Amino acid sequence: MDNQFIFKYSCETFPKKWVKKMERSEHGNRSDTNTDYLFQLLCFLKLHTYTRVQVSIDICGVDHPSRKRRFEVVYNLLSTRYNSRIRVQTSADEVTRISPVVSIFPSAGRWEREVWDMFGVSSINHPDLRRISTDYGFEGHPLRKDLPLSGYVEVRYDDPEKRVVSEPIEMTQEFRYFDFASPWEQRSDG
Amino acid sequence: MNIPATEKDLMIVNMGPHHPSMHGVLRLIVTLDGEDVVDCEPILGYLHRGMEKIAENRTIIQYLPYVTRWDYLATMFTEAITVNGPEQLGNIQVPKRASYIRVIMLELSRIASHLLWLGPFMADIGAQTPFFYIFRERELVYDLFEAATGMRMMHNYFRIGGVAADLPYGWIDKCLDFCDYFLTGIVEYQKLITRNPIFLERVEGIGVIGGEEAINWGLSGPMLRASGIKWDLRKVDHYECYDEFDWEIQWQKEGDSLARYLVRISEMTESIKIIQQALEGIPGGPYENLEIRCFDREKDPEWNDFEYRFISKKPSPTFELPRQELYARIEAPKGELGIFLIGDQSGFPWRWKIRPPGFINLQILPQLVKRMKLADIMTILGSIDIIMGEVDR
After folding, report:
1. Kind and range of the H or E element at A148?
2. Across the interface, which of A58, A133, A183 has its CB nearest the CB of B317?
3. If exposure means fewest CB atoms within 10 Å of the residue's CB, which of A80, A110, B16, B315 is most exposed?
4. The total number of structural domains that make up chain B
5. Which domain range does residue B80 map to?
6. CB contact burial B29-60 (16+ within 10 A = b; e otherwise)
7. Which alpha helices (H) appear in A121-190, and where do they start and end?
8. B181 Cα to chain A: minimum distance (Å)
9. At residue B72, what are phi and psi to the nearest 5 degrees?
10. Inside any domain, residue A35
11. Which one of B62, B236, B239 has the shortest CB-CB distance to A178?
12. How deeply is A121 buried, as exposed, middle or buried, from its count of CB atoms within 10 A (0-12, 13-18, 19+)?
């Protein structure tokens, strides 16, 4: 479905120190890079005549708690000129700060805010780094794997105080984990 | 004439999260100088429901009811992409009939979404009548959906490998009748709206985006096509069976709100063309790839036996996503809807990232409203066509 043009070209022309690994699969091509060279790599991809990747489709973070550099920030890119997509990934841990790509791709502003809000991977010199999806005054970074699905606080409207308050969560039913081999098998405790 | 000197005191107005248009809960903090807008800051997050984190704890078939709540007006697209992702990961073939049914449902959903964009857009500008007219047509689409899928809006219809149930007897004729009726409906809208001088005053030249700028900001969908760029994922990606039909990409050159309106109206007509061709050419055959229904994990358990085959219509929850990652995309009526899916060798995905078109398209709003009047904000916001369910997820 995709054509592989950008990927092949960039395989040949990238300086060796920029790229840790380039992988090619039928589901999309990716290249892994180091956080120091991220900005240069994306600048190259955007401005070079034969790659012209002008659209940053998506920036997302992934959490792999078992790795040392647990977060991976994935940049999905598209070139409308050559009809080609490429994916660039870097890894970061909780304290690494990545460089913002807002000056290259203006649409990346909100995505980076979201990566900060959901994972805690911040950007140096980002023009506007605030929370975007979570509540005002929420503590924690929701999409990390160590925050449970139900969270730690629940909110309710408190009538005596006439406002919404946050309280530690109280679950009336235990957390159901759906992983059984067939839909008819019972859970172990019935 | 002597104009008295005014004080340069900027006024900050909060167009709060609740407001009477149908975009959803979007908060705009607008800085005004008299009636000219100096700056506008959208604040999102009021409808954030944690869809991505929930996806990490549900199998695909359990997650399907959640996805229709992202973009609740064009529900078939969200389901289509939820199902397309694992299908591409697992290289699952979809039978031809299922592909045709999916295309028909997707195009009907596109019409429904554009209709429900048109109503509130006109209502924000001030014309109340089209708001009622669109619901008349949308109710017909709901009836068709209810006959085929069982639900008016939040159909849980798409499955990995096909659709959940085949079309009922007589549905195709009803759908052809709807197509004929709808073409007269579109003509009515054109007569009422397109050459209306008040509408043109309000909408022409407002919110102009150039072609290069549109690509830089990552816009997609009708916003990009109205600025002169012929980019439609249905033609570019060759997915489902869109290649077998004869249709054209609708586009305009000017890039203002009027151009976006014209693109969407002509997309509706084009969708009717596609539906008519699909209905006339729909092949027979199975509507679902039944091999997905086998239980993979245990080798030949007793549940695969003949006696149990017809007990439940739900496929097995053990569709295991291989340990690969994939970005799947689809041309939703609002733009490019995508998911970035990383599978872990288990029933649950490891990371399910939703790329909503509204989130990206909304980023250009602060730039477009500078130096416009206060009343133009609603025109521009309406022409961007966002829905907060998918912006916030």
Report:
1. none
2. A183
3. B16
4. 1
5. 11-293+318-392
6. ebebeeeebeebebbbbbbbebbbbebbbbbb
7. none
8. 37
9. -80, 0
10. yes
11. B62
12. buried
For residue range B39-59, what is the model confidence (pLDDT) as tens digits? 888 888 888 888 888 888 888
The answer to whether position B298 is within a domain reads no
DSSP string covering B106-175 = HHHHHHHHHHHHHHHHHHHHT--HHHHHHHHHHHHHHHHHHHHHS-SSS---EETTEESSPPPTTHHHHH
* pLDDT digits 0-9 by tens, A33-84: 766 677 777 787 777 777 777 788 888 888 888 878 888 888 888 887 777 7
Residue A42 domain-assigned? Answer: yes
Strands B36-43 and B158-159: unpaired
User: Is B310 among the domain residues?
Assistant: no
Contacts of B317 in chain A (CB under 8 A): 178, 180, 183
State the burial class of residue B113 (Cβ atoms within 10 Å of its Cβ: 0-12, 13-18, 19+): buried
> Would you say residue A120 lies in a domain?
yes
Amino acid at B345: Q
What values do phi and psi take at B390, rounded to 5? -95, -25
Q: Does A74 touch chain B (CB under 8 A)?
A: yes
Q: Is A143 on the interface with B (CB under 8 A)?
A: yes
Structural domains of chain A, count: 1
CATH number of residue B68's parent domain: 1.10.645.10
**Residue B1 belongs to some domain of the structure:** no
Question: Tens digit of pLDDT for each residue in B290-317?
Answer: 666 554 555 555 555 566 666 554 445 5
Which phi and psi (to 5°) does residue A51 adopt? -115, -45
Residue B155 has which token pair?
């159909």
Count how many residues are written for chain B.
393
Helix axes of B257-281 and B374-384: crossing angle, nearest 10 degrees: 20
Q: What is the ipTM of this complex?
A: 0.79
Instruction: Decide the pairing of beta strands B36-43 and B27-33.
Output: antiparallel
Q: Which residue of A has its CA nearest to B364?
A: A107
- Name the residue of chain B whose CA is nearest to A115's CA: B353
Domain carrying residue A94: 3-130
CA distance A36 to chain B (A): 24
Taking an 8 Å cut-off on Cβ atoms, the answer to whether A60 and B340 are in contact is: yes
**Is A80 among the domain residues?**
yes
Is B312 part of any domain? no
Name the nearest CA neighbour of A110 among B41, B60, B237, B146.
B41
Size (chain A), residues:
190
What is the model's pTM?
A: 0.85
Interface test with A, best of B360, B368, B392 (most A CBs within 10 A): B360
